[in-house]
Design a protein that fits this description.
alpha/beta; 36% helix; HpyO/CreE_NAD-binding; 19 strands; six-stranded mixed sheet
Length: 596
């Protein structure tokens, strides 16, 4: 009989951060229906405190902000979530903390909220469910498919015995790839500094010397954290420049950051106004029926060929719906006529012709390629010219993203969320979509971009441009870009400002590596393959493991990585609910067999 050593059924959740807490909340919500008064041991395994976990722990710099407004963060379900379990409402972050809903708070406040959610969840569990915390790392899982599993913990000679295991591992570290190993070896040989991809809050930045040039590859959110820690984090401050903009006052301890990336620009600013009026009726061109048809394709799905045209049409529909309904004076056709012709358009060329006829101002048209790669094909004569142009680009982006007259941008954001919720069902669709989504929808708050401009004006931050490459030669690192093709910048320090990509083969997580070695299936991108219905781990023949589940960014059912916004359907909530219900049904049947 598969029972724990106590005689009660046992569930082990590896990872007690937001995802693990979310699964536990769904267990508490569904247990009255599916499990009744039966006893259950729940073991939470995580070296970091439950609730916030590693990323949202409260022991980090108060200078590091959340990347979502307080009103857009919730850990609680509502009626918009398509799930079988009951809704258990609760406060958003801004309601719980009594802060401005439009504020971007520091991560420690979010960590406090997540701790409270965890404690409330534990208190809501039925009396027979006991939670046991293990502040250790899980090293491996083994055991027969039809028998209890063994979860081995660091520093513990005997394993936890589990009837079911749920892996909510969160973001993981990775071993360096070939390029990173070569760069690290070159740095050691020549006495240079090389910081590989990492979570910036965990990086040791002390080797980056004041006043010295530092090459930074990566212009996303990891760079924003790096920028903050190497400026304000070293004693710099911002003052008013007399025109309502920040001016940076250096401490003298900052290095000089030379930043570039594939795009060469920062992510687009967060939207800085509230939504008013009618929302676009989504999904329209990429909903459940279209995903069903894609999944039924006998030859498989190619993202660019099969999915992207539907995504682009969905984004365009939301964009033009908002333009025609909220700003009709800037259009040359009735919405009903445009919508009918847009729906009937057979391809990109036909859509472009329709838009050109109906939308006079090019600034009102949706150009996804230009949004994604604004510097493509543009070359500058010098780095000085690039600095001026990129500052103008950032100022223009800030102005547009804070102007409600351009509210079609926010409609596109809503469409991006809708699309992401649909694409979860397709599994691993490759990295391009996630990068595109993050560039448009997961950019920094406006104040961070204003600080970026201030640092640029102060000479602490300098832009390298798009298509950045790094060469290790001549005893230094040397950066070039397609934006300034005739110039280069040399430095003795290189920082890879991006998160690691922990494939199953290269992850530093011993448990995930062990699953892969034991036959768990992975996708082409190295993600753990799971059953989209309930998150059960698949083997290489496609068979789901009856006693192992996995949720989160290390799986092909990953979401956007952001917290769920209230009243947006919450794919992560749907996944958590499905996994919790499957686990409770299994454990309930097990208890019945034992009682019989």
């Amino acid at each position: 009989m598969s029972v724990s050593a106590t005689g009660r059924p046992s569930l082990v959740i590896v990872g007690a951060g937001p995802r693990g807490t979310g699964v536990l909340e769904r267990i508490a919500a569904n247990a009255p229906e599916l499990y009744g008064d039966t006893e259950l041991d729940v073991h939470l395994v995580d070296p970091y405190p439950p609730g916030g976990g590693r990323i949202w722990r409260q022991t980090q710099s108060p200078l590091l902000w959340m990347n979502s407004e307080a009103q857009d963060v919730t850990m609680f379900t509502d009626e918009t979530v398509d799930m079988a379990g009951p809704v258990r409402p609760g406060p958003t972050l801004h309601e719980w903390a009594a802060v401005d809903g439009r504020s971007f708070n520091d991560r420690r406040l979010l960590g406090s909220y997540l701790t409270w959610v965890y404690e409330r969840t534990v208190a809501a569990l039925p009396p027979g469910v006991r939670v046991h915390r293990h502040a250790r790392r899980a090293l491996r899982v083994d055991g027969p498919r039809q028998g209890r599993q063994r979860v081995w913990l660091e520093g513990r000679p005997r394993p936890l015995l589990a009837d079911l295991v749920v892996l909510t591992l969160g973001h993981l570290d990775a071993e360096p790839d070939d390029e990173q190993r070569q760069l690290a070896a070159y740095a050691r040989e020549h006495g240079l500094v090389h910081l590989p991809p990492d979570f910036t809050a965990d990086s040791d930045l002390t080797a980056l010397a004041p006043g010295e040039p530092v090459l930074v590859r990566g212009f996303g959110l990891a760079f924003v954290d790096l920028m903050v820690l190497l400026t304000e984090g070293r004693g710099g401050r911002y003052a008013d420049d007399g025109r309502g903009e920040p001016a940076y006052v250096p401490s003298g301890r900052e290095p000089v950051l030379y930043v570039g990336s594939r795009r060469g620009v920062p992510y687009h600013s967060k939207i800085g106004y509230d939504w008013e009026g009618e929302r676009p009726p989504l999904p329209r061109f990429l909903g459940p029926q279209e995903v069903d048809a894609l999944l039924a394709r006998p030859d498989g799905v190619d993202f660019r060929r099969d999915v992207w045209p539907l995504v682009e049409k969905e984004l365009g529909f939301a964009h033009y719906h908002r333009l025609f309904t909220a700003h009709p004076e800037r259009t040359g056709m009735a919405w009903a006529d445009f919508e009918a012709r847009y729906a009937a358009a057979g391809g990109a060329a036909e859509v472009a012709a329709l838009v050109a006829a109906a939308v006079p101002d090019p600034a009102d048209r949706l150009d996804t390629a230009a949004l994604d790669r604004p510097l493509d094909g543009v070359a500058y004569r010098s780095y000085a010219e690039l600095q001026e142009e990129l500052r103008a680009y950032i100022r223009d982006d800030l102005t547009r993203r804070h102007n409600p007259l351009r509210s079609q941008d926010q409609a596109v954001f809503l469409a991006l969320l809708s699309v992401y919720g649909q694409l979860v069902r397709l599994g691993d669709i490759g990295p391009w979509w996630h990068g595109f989504f993050s560039h448009l929808a997961s950019g920094p708050p406006g104040p961070r971009l204003r600080q970026m401009l201030a640092l640029s004006r102060a000479g602490v931050l300098r832009f390298l441009g798009a298509g950045m490459t790094v060469e290790a030669a001549g005893g230094v690192f040397r950066a070039r870009s397609a934006s300034v093709p005739r110039s280069s910048v040399a430095a003795r320090a290189l920082v890879e400002a991006r998160l690691p990509h922990p494939t199953a083969e290269r992850t530093r997580d011993a448990l995930l590596r062990g699953l892969y070695a034991d036959g768990a299936a992975v996708t082409a991108e190295g993600l753990l393959a799971v059953d989209p219905a309930d998150g059960r781990v698949l083997d290489r023949s496609g068979l789901p493991h009856p006693r192992r589940f996995a949720l989160g960014p290390h799986t092909d059912a990953r979401g956007s990585g952001a917290f769920t916004r209230p009243r947006t359907g919450g794919p992560a909530f749907r996944q958590n609910d499905a996994t919790a219900r499957a686990a409770l049904a299994f454990l309930g049947a097990l208890s019945c067999r034992k009682a019989a």
